[in-house]
Write a structure and sequence with these properties.
CATH superfamily of the largest domain: NAD(P)-binding Rossmann-like Domain
Radius of gyration: 26 Å
Bound molecules: 1,4-dihydronicotinamide adenine dinucleotide, 2-oxoglutaric acid
Structural class: alpha/beta
CATH topology of the largest domain: Rossmann fold
Number of strands: 16
Number of helices: 13
CATH class of the largest domain: Alpha Beta
Shape: elongated
Order of helices and strands: EHEEEHEHHHEHEHEHEHEHEEHEHEEHE
Number of domains: 4
Strand order of the largest sheet: 8-7-6-9-10-11-12
Distance between the termini: 13 Å
Strand content: 15-25%
Largest sheet: 7 strands, parallel
Helix content: 25-40%
Length: 390
């Protein structure tokens, strides 16, 4: 029986993937083999020795100590792209909320709710509606910082609306580059993008390198009156600098999925309670993907979409016993493991070894099951972090 501890609201469509005959799943599960979570912060939390994997049903993994967990042999997964469409749609809504008098217009229409005469009401609102007039997105320039799963979708939508799209992403992956429309004009640096954009939408991960990437210096070069949209993370902007730029009349509006004290109530700020990915469809996509990845890892040792271990996949050899070994990525570990197997007269049928930065991972199919002594000997090989028999 595998044990899965869940945190946050995980869509039942995902949790239903776990067969109740072989999986115990729930928020109160103890000694879990794996966690499935959304924004639950794991930094500083005790780690049960049983924990083998964590799946973030979503994109951002800044709530998980990814590096530390890797050193302990805990594989951390996310679900790339599974909630990108939901965020894209809210970014579009964010832009429209700043260009049209939608929010004050709704408020005004509500304020007329006590009137009883329909003709009088229509006469009044026709007289007043010019206060809520706006501008169009077509023909405006959108600068996108981070052109991954969300950034590329936002780009497609903006292009379809007749906007000009600029993009900045110095770390763009080859897969992401394939997804990106060639109508997106590539910027060599952030200041060039900020100076030319009427709207700037940020879609980078929360990393040390992206912390406060929108600070006072960046804002001093932003196009006067520009709208900044932050559906990425609170750490990416310096809130004091945003406030100062709004008050100084340089930054036109700030739309954020991450309200900050002192900023979210500002007249020129539209803040939402981190609902970028909160759609039925996204929650299902993320939960299904997270559940499938965890099952594939627990049952077969295969790793898909990890953020700390390499992608490793090997079909099961019928009748074989599988060893899954996580180790530090130093020379000689695999050789020492194979010597232990040879000494124990265990025949290797198939194997795969992959590394990623300081970590490596191996799947080894054996024609017969190793005994406790052999497993212990492998666990004692220098730099081996974790051994599992599957
Ligand atoms: N508001 C919400 O509910 C949600 C927020 N997010 C946030 O959005 C972020 C992006 O999500 P995805 O697009 O799915 O991730 P992704 O990994 O597909 O794309 C991120 C892109 O940012 C680029 N990047 C990294 N550092 C950069 C830098 N310094 N300058 C410019 N580009 C840089 C990467 O090369 C990559 O192409 C997540 O990490 C998460 O923090 C994601 C989903 C929902
Ligand atoms: O699970 C959520 O609602 C948050 C989604 C998110 O921020 C992410 O996927 O990075």
């Amino acid at each position: 029986m595998f044990k899965i501890k869940t945190y946050n609201a995980i869509s039942s469509k995902g949790l239903e993937r776990f067969n109740p005959k072989t999986y115990e799943v729930g928020g109160a599960v103890a000694d879990a083999d794996a966690y499935v979570l959304r924004s639950q912060k794991l930094h500083g939390e005790p780690v049960p020795p049983s924990l083998l994997a964590v799946a973030r049903a979503g994109a951002g993994v800044n709530n998980i100590p990814v590096g530390e967990y890797g050193q302990q042999g805990i594989v951390v997964f996310n679900t790339p792209g599974a909630n990108a469409n939901a965020v894209k749609e809210l970014v579009l809504a964010g832009m429209l909320l700043t260009t049209r008098g939608i929010l004050p217009g709704i408020e005004y229409a509500r304020s007329l709710g006590t009137m009883t005469d329909s003709a009088e009401m229509h006469q009044l609102l026709e007289k007043e509606k010019s206060r809520f007039a706006g501008t169009e997105l077509r023909g405006k320039t959108l600068g996108i910082v981070g052109l991954g799963a969300i950034g590329s979708m936002v780009a497609d939508t903006a292009l379809a609306l007749g906007m000009k799209v600029l993009g900045f992403d110095p770390a763009l992956s080859i897969d992401a580059a394939w997804r990106l429309s060639n109508a997106v004009q590539r910027m060599e640096n952030l200041p060039s993008l900020l100076a030319r954009s009427d709207f700037v939408s940020i879609h980078v991960p929360a990393l040390e390198s992206t912390r406060h990437m929108i600070d006072a210096a960046a804002l001093s070069g932003i196009k006067p009156g520009a709208v900044l949209l932050n559906f990425a993370r609170e750490t990416i902007v310096d809130p004091a600098a945003i406030l100062q730029s709004l008050d100084a009349g340089r930054l036109g509006r700030y739309v954020s999925d991450f309200p900050e004290p002192g900023l979210s109530t500002h007249d020129k700020c539209i803040a939402m309670p981190h609902i970028g990915a909160s759609t039925e469809e996204s929650e299902e996509n993320c939960a299904v993907m997270a559940a499938d990845q965890i099952m594939e890892f627990l049952e077969n040792g295969n790793i898909v979409n990890s953020v700390n271990y390499p992608a490793v996949r090997m079909d099961r050899t019928p009748g074989a016993t599988r060893l899954a070994i996580a180790n530090e990525n130093v020379a000689g570990v695999l050789g020492s493991v194979l010597s232990v197997l040879a000494d124990a007269k265990l025949n290797v049928i198939d194997m795969i070894n992959r590394s990623r930065d300081e970590l490596a991972y191996n799947l080894i199919d054996l024609s017969s099951a190793p005994d406790e002594t052999a497993i212990k000997a492998i666990g004692n090989v220098a730099h081996v972090i974790r051994v599992r028999v599957i």
